[in-house]
Structure formats: C-alpha cells, structure tokens
Design goal:
Number of helices of chain B: 4
Number of helices of chain A: 21
Shape of chain A: globular
Order of helices and strands of chain A: HHHHHHHHHHHHHHHHHHHHH
Helix content of chain B: over 70%
Helix content of chain A: over 70%
Oligomer: heterodimer
Number of domains of chain B: 1
Radius of gyration of chain A: 23 Å
Shape of chain B: elongated
Radius of gyration of chain B: 22 Å
Largest interface: A-B, 52 and 53 residues
Largest sheet of chain B: none
Largest sheet of chain A: none
Order of helices and strands of chain B: HHHH
Strand content of chain A: under 5%
Distance between the termini of chain B: 9 Å
Number of strands of chain A: 0
Structural class of chain A: mainly alpha
Number of strands of chain B: 0
Distance between the termini of chain A: 22 Å
Chain lengths: 555, 104
C-alpha cells in the first residue's frame, strides 16, 4: 500500500505542477512555483505516508482507530495537542497581527493561550476518567443515550465543519501563495492526504503527523526567531526601539490600542477563545489517547509549555518583521514601502524568513505551513468520523449492538465522506470572506459543547431536558448572533449597520446556554431526572478516582 | 465484590473526602490565580490603557504591558507545573490508597 500511496501523492503534485504553470500568470496573489518548498514538503509527505503504512498495521480495533489504544505517552500527547491546536493561522495570522498592531496582537495571543491552564485544572483528569472515544461519551454518561449523544455528536460535527472550511480555504490560499499551486489543486491535495492519513492510519497516524508537525513548527519558528533577533544583538531595547521608529503608528504599537477598546467585545472574545478551546472536539479527543489521568495531566503541562513558548516566539517574529520586512521595498508591491505587502497581509513571517534565511529557509517554512494545515485537518476529520461512527452509528442507530468490524467500516466511510465534504466546501467557499467562520467555530464550541460538558461533569442537577434546551439555546443564539454581527451582516450581506455590534457572540450565547440549561434542569421533575441525579454518584466517584475508567489496550 | 460495594467503600473512606476537598480547592485557587490577573489585565487595556503604556524605565521604549503579558504566558505554564507536581504526587498517592482500600 505504501508504494501506491506515494505514487498517488507524487502524481497529485505533478498534476498540480502542470496546472500551476499556465495559471501562474493570472492571479495577482499567485507566486512563482517554489521548487525548494515543494521538495521539502514531499519529504514530509513521504515520511508521513510511511508512518501511515506502519500505523495501518497497528490499527485493528475501534480503540486503536479512535484513541491509538490509549497508548500515547503524556509527552507525545503534549506535542500532538500543540500540533493539533497551533494552526497555520497561529504562525501567519498572529505574526501579521503583531506586525500590524503591535501590543494588541500580544493581547490576542495571550487570550488564545490562557484557556490551557484552566483546561488542566478543571477538566483534563475528569475528561480522561469519564471518556472513552468522544466527548459525547461524557455528556451522555448518565443522561439519555440517544438524545444527548445525538445532540453532542451534531455539536461536534458543526464545529468540525466550520473549522474545516476555515482550514481548507486557508490551505488553498496559502499553498497558492507559497507553492504557486492552483487553489483547487491545493484543496484537493490537502483533502486526499487527510483522507489517507485518517482512513488508513486512524489516531496513530494522526498523532504522529501532529507530533512531527509540532517539532517542525517549533524548530523552524525558533530558528527564524534566533536569526531575526541576532540582527538586533539579542537586545529587546534595540529591537523595540527600531520597531517603534519603523512603524507608521510609532510609539503607539507599545500600548493597548483599538482592539480592546470596547470592554464587552474584549470579554466576549476572551470567552470564545477560553471556553471555545475547551469545547473543540478534536482537542478533547486527544485526552483519551493516554493511558490514565496522570498522563493526561502531563500532556497538558507539555502542550501548554510548547504553545506558550511558540506564542512568545511569534511575538518576537512579528516585532522583528516590523523592522526587517516593513522597511524593505523588495517585499511591497511596486516597491512602495508602507503599501500593500506582496502576497497579502498574512505574509510578514514568510518575508521575514526570506530576508534572514534566504530562499531555502522560505521553502522550509512554507513546507512547515503546509504540514501544519494537514495536521490540523487530520485531527478534525478524525473527530468528525468518530462522532459519526461511534456516536451516531454504533451508539444511537445500533444502540451499542454494532460489531467492532461494522463500526470500523463506518468510520472509514465517514472519514472518506468528511474528506470529500471538506474538498467540496473548500472549493465552494473560495474567495469568500470567511472571517466569520472563526467566530462561529469558537462561538458554537463555547456555547454548545462546553456548557453541556462542564455541567455534566460538575453539576448533579443537570438533566436531559436541561441539556437539550440549553444546547439548542446556545446553538441558535451563537449562529443567530454571528449572522447579525458585523462580519456577516455588513461584510457578507452588505447591510450598512450590524444588528449585533460584536463579532464574537459568546458573552451572550454562552451565558444564555448556561441559564437555559439550569432552568430546564431545575424545573424537570420527571422520574428520569431523579434517576439521572442518582447516577451522578457513580460518575462522580469515577471522575475523581478513575475507578472503572478505560485503560490502555495491550498490543 | 460488586462495583456498588466498592463505590460505597470509597464514599465512606474519609480519605476520599480529603482527596476531593484538597484537589478541588487547589484547582479553584490555581484557576483564580490565572483568571483574576488575566481579566484584570483585559479590563485595564479597556478602561485605563495608559497604565500599561508607562515605560519600564526613564527613556526606555519598553512599556509595562509587554513583560506583564509575557509573565501571564510563562506564569500560566509554571502553574500547570505546580498543579501536576502535586496532583501526580500527593493526590495520586492518596487516590491509589483509596482504590486499594476499597478492594479489600
């Protein structure tokens, strides 16, 4: 199978090259074909396909497929979580935000980070002790199996779908930009590689793709940071002094600016990022890949360290780019310093790589960006496939009567289905303004997945009725408010004034979800509600002690 | 021994109450140590941004905001270390004792 996989991907890339050559002239954004980047990326693809082949041999049961048999160590899982969480948007988007806005970019970065310690303190060990394959396992632990599980599965799939569109469109644009490949070709390549990793290699392959990508991203980012920072003699005073002199906003980049000027908007953003992170199904799924709560805690410790370190690296990269990229006419269209950056606003870190490390380093970083996208979409596809096969098929439709072989078959069909859907959505949303999808992803994760998850673990009084009411309230309000927000109402639909003034709905939708869940639960006097409250005892003991928790599977 | 029996034993073991109480308190305190400075920081950026714009030293371009933001990242990570050192040591030992005593 290995040979055919390699031949397949090589064929895809060659086909891409053939299409890219004539197309390179028409798009303004399109860059010349980047041979060194493609060569380095091919090395990554061949290595990861080799791992997929090895992983396929080890993926026999559903437990292997969903959670790598629970046999991943805390350190490996920490790297994989970092690889799952840090998307191409982290490298490109956060550096460009710092490049454009200075300190405001740092505030945004801190908000992306701060959820991790909280996930460790309040969730990690309970997730590991209660869950088996998906977060719906926990939400439906003592509540109605079919209704709550169906609802949680749809919550997962909604988040996976929105986030996949963001990643696929980003992939298409980025690869077009960095590799000089056609947009549609890039989307198809990403979709097919993702299907191959997930369908054949399951969680084992996905984990290793994420680990390798995390190492590449951390290594590449750190090397670039050292090269750039050395130009300032490793002096912060020197670096920041020159950045203030070079930036058109001058000393203002050193202080909070417009991003956080509105406190309600700032808090809503922080809710979405903080609690949304704790409601991302592909991230939560990673907690089930370690053998016990001890390793689950360790994985968050390592992941938090890697993510925090990388975010600090990103800040230095953004500031360095203000001086090194922002004053070099070679990186601006028409050589106009301060005009439009070649390739668009997300390119500062790539130009920085070219400036301090030459074409080879640029090629390397481009390949890392592509690998990053692949790792994130693979995690998403796996989370989606498990929601379909484990939650909807095996538990709800078959009521737990499906054989392991049947369930495996459905997971594979689901993985391929998700891959094809992702390709179709990626092409459909080409050239669309998709900024709102990020708000939707985190808004739904924070308002639908997070409340039911945290309440089912912490609150004895939660009932099926409350969870359903609250979930629907969270979903409807999150989606509705995003539609009424500036990002959709004004920028997509072309109205003059937004009905809801904030881009992130979480402050309203998440609060509403909690209130409605509470209301629906306390007014629920049914016999079922009483039984559910009674079942909390057993769940509580298991959550605290790990008694009866699924252990690692021996190989 | 039945599962229910084991659970009842765990529940009645005073060590269980001790474990849960200690660990819950510890987790809540650490969460507050992360969240209170973070939201205070966010409120300062919204209501009194000038405070973070003050230079670190006379004549320096570096302002207070940067090292404070970096401290939240580094401090947040160090706190995860503090939590796991106690949870994976003291709390897990206690947990093992509870599970062992329940099997008897």
């Amino acid at each position: 199978m290995k040979r055919s996989l390699i031949a397949l991907s090589a064929g895809l890339l060659i086909a891409g090259l053939a299409i890219a050559a004539p197309g390179a002239l028409d798009g303004v954004q399109k860059q010349p074909l980047n041979v060194s980047a493609i060569a380095m990326f091919m090395v990554f693809v061949i290595a990861t396909l080799g791992i997929t082949k090895w992983a396929a041999g080890r993926t026999k049961s559903t437990a292997d497929f969903y959670t790598a048999g629970g046999g991943i160590t805390g350190f490996q899982n920490g790297l994989a979580i970092a690889g799952d969480y840090m998307s191409a948007a982290t490298l490109l988007g956060l550096t460009s935000l710092v490049y454009a806005k200075g300190f405001d970019g740092f505030i945004y970065t801190v908000s992306f980070f701060i959820g991790w310690p909280i996930i460790l303190f309040l969730m990690a060990e309970r997730l590991r002790n209660l869950g088996k394959f998906t977060f719906a396992d926990i939400a439906s632990y003592r509540l109605d199996q079919s209704r709550i599980r169906t609802f949680a599965a749809f919550g997962s799939l909604t988040v996976v779908c929105f986030y996949l569109i963001v990643q696929m469109v980003g992939a298409g644009q980025l690869i077009q930009l960095l590799f000089g490949l056609e947009y549609n070709m890039a989307v198809v390549c990403v979709g097919i590689l993702m299907m191959v990793y997930v369908t054949f290699g399951g969680m084992v392959a996905t984990t290793w793709v994420q680990i390798i990508k995390a190492c590449l991203l951390l290594g590449g980012g750190t090397a670039l940071m050292l090269l750039a920072f050395s130009q300032f003699g490793f002096s912060f005073e020197n670096l920041f002094g020159q950045a203030v002199a070079a930036h058109k906003a001058g000393i203002k980049i050193m202080a909070p600016g417009s991003l956080m000027a509105d406190p309600v908007s700032a808090v809503s953003l922080s809710f979405a990022l903080l609690f949304g992170t704790a409601g991302l199904p592909h991230i939560m799924m990673r907690f089930f890949t370690v053998p016990n709560a001890k390793e689950a805690r360790k994985s968050v410790f390592y992941a938090t360290g890697f993510i925090g370190f990388f975010f600090l690296v990103v800040i230095i990269l953004g500031i360095s780019a203000i001086v090194i990229v922002g004053q070099n006419p070679a990186f601006f269209e028409g050589g106009q310093v301060g005009g439009k950056l070649i390739g668009g606003g997300n390119m500062p870190v790539m130009h920085l790589a070219k400036s301090v490390g030459g074409d080879i380093f640029l090629g390397f970083l481009s390949a890392v960006a592509f690998a990053t996208i692949l790792a994130v979409v693979s995690g998403l596809a796996l989370a989606g496939a498990s929601a379909i096969a484990h939650d909807l098929y095996a538990r709800v439709i078959k009521k737990g009567e499906a054989t392991s072989a049947q369930e495996m078959k459905v997971t594979k069909i689901a993985s391929v289905g998700i891959g094809l859907t992702a390709i179709a959505l990626g092409i459909l949303f080409k050239d669309q303004n998709i900024a709102f999808l990020v708000a939707l992803t985190f808004g739904v994760a924070a308002s639908v997945n997070f409340p039911v998850l945290i309440l089912s673990m912490y609150w004895k009084g939660l009932t099926t009725r409350g969870a359903l009411w609250g979930g629907v309230a969270g979903l409807v309000s999150a989606v509705g408010l995003v539609i009424l927000s500036p990002a959709v109402w004004v920028k997509v639909l072309g109205n003059a004034q937004a009905v809801f003034p904030y881009d992130h709905p979480a402050i309203i939708s998440m609060t509403l979800a909690f209130v409605v869940t509470w209301l629906g639960s306390v007014t629920d006097k049914s016999a079922r509600a009483a039984k559910e409250a009674e079942a909390f005892e057993e769940q509580y003991i298991r959550a605290q002690t790990g008694l009866g928790a699924a252990g690692a599977h021996a190989h | 021994m039945s599962q229910q029996n084991i659970q009842a034993k765990i529940r009645s073991n005073p060590k269980f109450a001790e474990l849960v109480g200690k660990r819950t308190r510890f987790a809540i305190i650490l969460s507050l140590v992360v969240l209170v400075p973070y939201y205070s920081f966010m409120m300062v950026t919204a209501f009194n941004p000038g405070l973070l714009a003050k230079p670190l030293a006379e004549g320096s371009v570096m302002t207070w905001g940067w090292p404070l933001a970096a401290l939240m990242v580094v401090g947040g990570w160090l706190l995860t270390g503090v939590y796991i050192s106690r949870a994976n040591g003291e709390f897990d030992d206690l947990n093992q004792q509870i599970l062992k005593e329940a099997q008897k």
